[in-house]
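Lab notebook, bench 4. The sequencing result for the construct came back, and we need a structural model before the next group meeting so we can plan mutations. Quick request posted to the team channel:

Model the 3D structure of this chain.
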Amino acid sequence: MHRYEIALEYRPGPNRLAGTARLSAIAGRAPLTEFHLNLSEFRIGRILVDGRAPHYTHRGGRLRVRPAKPLPAGAAFTVEVHYAGNPRPVRSPWGGLGWEELTDGALVASQPVGAPSWYPCNDRPADKASYQISVNTPSAYTVVAGGRLLTRTTRASTTTWVYEQSAPTSSYLVGLSIGMYQTVLLGDPGLGGVPQSAHVPAHLLPRFSRDFARQPAMMRLFEELFGPYPFGEYAVVVADEELDVPVEAQGLSLFGANHVDGARGSERLVAHELAHQWFGNSVTIADWRHIWLNEGLAKYAEWLWSERSGGRPARELAAAAHRMLSAQPQDLKLSDPGRKLMFDDRVYERGGLAVHAIRCALGDRAFFLMLRDWATVHRHGVVTTAAFAAHVARYADGPVTELLSAWLDQPSLPPLPSPQGSPSIPERPAYPPTNGGAGGRGEASA
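Done. Here's the predicted structure in token form:
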């Protein structure tokens, strides 16, 4: 896909959604006689391909479209889908995913297969496109989506919010939240800085103000370590309900009320979701076999934040993770954990340990150069584990094939890695130490 333009009307009370999605795409190397889109069980009003009605079927969450005449190889074309219904999560081995009706509003948490719960798409992480999302809803509600707010127009009792995400975006990373929120700014981005906003229920603002106070400092650290923030802005939403785990979308992260306690008890998760903007959102995996590249690097970013903010250093957090994993079953292959285990805590913890092992092998100077270059070279791109292994090898003084194979391809847990030389990240914290326990193990986050 090249671009999605999605216009929605949503009424929270009856949980009623009516949508029009206009998809721009390019045919492949052969004439295109048929194509498939993913879409949940909405009622289809009409479908047009380049303005003409095609033949289509819609069963089992799959929309099969046969254009009136084959589309020439390499031709640009548009698909328009009008649909309506009561959105609900997609059933999956990991529970319901996608559109979630809340007590008062809704949110979208699509990873990995929930995007079809609210719009038609080619639901593969490697197929990235730009997005424009328009949502009309009662004016009492705030609509938050990833990207830049272009317009907000109120007519009578409803307001239409229009967001633009120009950076290439995977379908599962298109975030949306509709709720009763107060909007606040986090810090002063200054000239050339990243605008950071938050959308929070009013009664949670006092706790939120403490829990997220250091997010601007995280942004500065991660830009130092990983390179410039890859999008135009960053927003966080706190839903007025408990969520099992926070979830990142492109330019947006969603937290539950349970992640706001006024004591920075979930600060490591704030760092984790922010780090995903580089690792997972800008640099996107080709398919879900490679999920450790998202989660292992975001986990290690938690440890780096702890190290730089007066908490436990990464080596201590790595040792704690290694002790925990030593007591777990040794049946997970990190480079391809399979659908059943892809969100297992061990993917996160062993992924972070694998990154730490690479740091120990390369030494700090080469490691941080490697990490920054990885995020820079593949900015807005699609990657695999093999590509990462080849990238790491370019920064090593000697062979790293055995090291990477032991951590990524073998189920048994390698010994705890030990560093070479002295660390180049200073022992003196770069940010005031106010959360010495940050970065410890807890629930996984997406």
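The chain has nine helices and 21 strands.
Will bring this to the meeting.
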